[in-house]
Amino acid sequence: MRLAIITIGKGKNKAIHTLADDYLGRLKHYVNLEHIVAKDEADALKKISLREVASPDYVWLCEESGTQYTSKEFADQFRVMQLYVRATPRSAVFVIGDAAGHGDAMKARADGLLSFSKMTLPHEFAFVVLLEQIYRAFTILKGEPYHK
Question: CA within 20 to 30 Å of 21's CA: 10, 42, 123, 136, which one?
Answer without folding.
Answer: 42
